[in-house]
# Entry
Amino acid sequence: MSNNFSPTKYKLQSVKTGKEFEDKGWMLDAPGETAPTLIRAIYQKRQIEVKDDSWGLYKFADWLPIGRTLKGSSAPITYKSTGLAAELGLKNLWITFSGYWPEKGIAMKTCSFKETESYSVCGRMTPEMNKILVVASAGNTSRAFAQVCSDNTIPLLICVPEDNLSALWFDAPLNSCVKLVSSRSGSDYFDAIHLSNIIAAMDGFVAEGGAKNVARRDGMGTTMLSATTKIGEIPDYYFQAVGSGTGAVAAWEANLRFIEDGRFGNKKMKLMVAQNLPFTPIHDAWKLDSREMLPLDNNEARKQVEIMDAKVLSNRKPPYPIAGGLYDALKDSNGEVLRATNDEARQAGILFEETEGIDIHPAAAVATATLIDAVKAGKVEKDAIVMLNITGGGEARFKAENELFYLKPEIVFDIDPDEDEVKAKIKALFS
# Structure
């Protein structure tokens, strides 16, 4: 990695009002605005100059809101499919892969595109912030942040449901700067978020911010940067499985930047986002053309999450209604929300490995299943430029090649914990 990095120049903008303002460090909301809105980074460089591969993820630094680079990153790779493309009869199927696949020149040790967001978010954190970063997730995001923070000695507290702890595997023990707490068995991602919110409100802690953090979205947007710069133009269709939909929003925002860049065409690619049955809250709201999420019983939601294979897609409160969120992205791109069963996704995962030569995560298999279905249903023209965002893969292979170490929780909290008890135990943990 080259050391001649100077912080990326950008401003922030409220999507709702269009007002621009300076980033005073870790801003997640537009100052003085009360209506819910995402904020967006407006980069000084309107035309992206991609650096060489030695920069890892930071080859896309022109469009990342960062003040520093960290060691150990990989950028997503994009290649033209022959195997799966032939199977589906598609002439222009491009696969953007995030994960572990050394022959293709990519070695994300956590095997997930969540690494793109952790390297970007932690690159936005300046050392003088001097706070413990708090991240909640159903597994992949926490694994990625844990690895990046451990490798770069950044203090981190992750909150993960006890039932998802199997996702916290690593190829070496982590630095003690990374700590884990859990919500008790029977809880889900929503419960982990609730726990993280209590902790993030304490002195000395800072919430990572989820979809509201421009660094998270623009980190995930590197999948689209990889695809478009490789293909040479903006794709016609974008397939991805979603839990929060943040990755799809990020792709849409990157699409708008490419239109402004002027060298990659001016089309808006159609977002084709997928959910894993039976848990489909985004699909259900979209089908009714409702900007608001529909009411969902907590216990019913937990039951549905138990059934689904792709548990990382189990977000009950996605950034869907907010200005600049998934509803707006789908509307602006004339997008669709699709669904796949566990069985369809498993079959798609097998087909992908047979035709492309690498194992993929359940969420990526959900996206692949909906692509197969959309092609069969005639929703995708055979010569269309299709981007399939494989958000995680190579995990089976990585696990076979490495000894694994699992992170254990320091504390397991009840599903609906007492706030004072949480604060007292967390304080004791870090004293």
Observations:
- The longest strand covers residues 270-276.
- The chain has a mean pLDDT of 96.
- DSSP finds 14 helices and 18 strands in the chain.
- The domain at 77-109+215-398 is CATH 3.40.50.1100 (Rossmann fold).
